[in-house]
Specification:
By secondary structure, the chain is α/β, with parallel strands linked by helices. The chain is built from ten helices and twelve strands. 47% of the residues are buried.
């Protein structure tokens, strides 16, 4: 089956529609973030200097010298990995997940092997599924589009000498667990696992998709290879200001509060959807979106657009198909309006 790996949620959105297709938080930017970004605009005549932002991210994740590489969004990191690791002979991508890693690998000439997780297992990782010959492995945690959060212990089992393990944690800052200290199941501070690269994004929680800012965490020797494939001054001065601000203690505390509120809003969405006939929620969602299976999903998606709602089609994700949709978590009032509309469409036979 062929999948459109280049399709993304922003293609679903247009003026006048309530956006449930893009996994970016819709809230005003806090002053501690907007201020530094605006102040940086006065220095645009100078080339970007990433030293301060890099040090800030190092401190946040307790990383050593050379173990942070700032990128123009996590998407750029996928391209750098695919280009810099052309010597990888057996790359594996664990699906369903964000399609850019596989697209970047294929565009760089790699032959990609897919490991597809099963709905009946809640789309959870079984480390035994990853073949021993895989020397480059990509997996998301929490995974887009299923919203499944894999145990860190299971991911750690995939690391081994001679293999690069890439864990896409673009949505790690959206996860929350009662009693947990920090982000549950994150590997961002693990320095003991051979070949581990963790990718992070600042564009989701802080609504910076248009600014393009993310970073890679990993062994210094491996990140040097990625940096060699990166264009000069790849991260803009405003994006560097955002990276510095988002690594501050104030930002981390605010992020945890947002993740806790998001958990309540997500649980509300899941509870309402599980009461709608013929709708199945994938796995145990842990992030800012959920995946649902329902008959005639593509037709339902079109009918939802007529009623003012944009949702993400699921048939572009390997491991899913035409009966899947991805829905972003929003406030409870938006959720209630959406679910009522969806119920009415299903009950009317649409």
């Amino acid at each position: 089956m062929s999948f459109d790996l280049d399709h993304h949620g922003d293609a679903e959105v247009e003026a006048g529609l309530i956006d449930l297709a893009v996994n970016v938080r819709h809230q005003p930017m806090p002053d501690w973030l907007s201020g530094p970004i605006m102040e940086s605009m006065a220095t645009l005549s100078a080339y970007p200097n990433a030293d301060k932002a890099t040090k800030s991210v190092q401190n946040r994740h307790q990383r050593g010298e050379g173990e942070v590489l700032l990128t123009a969004g996590a998407a750029q990191a996928f391209v750098l990995l695919a280009q810099a690791l052309r010597d990888a002979k057996n790359p594996v991508v664990v699906h369903p997940q964000f399609t850019e890693p596989e697209a970047a690998l294929r565009n760089a000439g790699h032959q990609v092997e897919r490991v597809v997780l099963s709905e009946k297992d809640g789309f959870r990782l079984d480390p035994a599924l990853i073949p021993d010959h895989a020397d480059l492995v990509f997996i998301g945690n929490p995974t887009n589009p299923t919203s499944v959060l894999h145990p860190a212990a299971d991911l750690a089992k995939l690391a081994r000498p001679g293999r690069v393990l890439v864990v896409d944690e673009a949505f790690a800052d959206t996860t929350w667990r009662s009693g947990a200290d920090g982000e549950p199941e994150s590997l961002a501070e693990r320095r003991d696992l051979p070949g581990l690269v963790v990718l992070r994004s600042l564009t989701k929680t802080w609504a910076l998709a248009g600014l393009r800012i993310g970073y890679a965490l990993g062994p210094a020797d491996l990140l040097r290879r990625l940096a060699a494939a990166q264009p000069l001054w790849a991260v803009s001065t405003p994006a560097l200001a955002a990276a510095t601000a988002c690594a501050s203690p104030v930002a981390v505390a605010a992020e945890r509060e947002i993740a806790a509120r998001l958990t309540v809003e997500r649980d509300h969405l899941v509870d309402r959807l599980r009461r709608v006939p013929s709708v199945t929620v994938a796995g145990e969602p842990a992030s800012a979106f959920i995946a649902v299976r329902l008959p005639n999903a593509d037709h339902i998606r079109a009918e939802l657009r007529k009623r003012g709602y944009a949702v993400r089609r699921g048939d572009t994700f390997p491991g899913m198909g035409p009966d899947w949709l991805r829905i972003a978590v929003r406030d409870t009032a938006t959720t209630d309006g959406f679910v009522q509309t969806l119920r009415e469409l299903i009950e009317a036979g649409n």
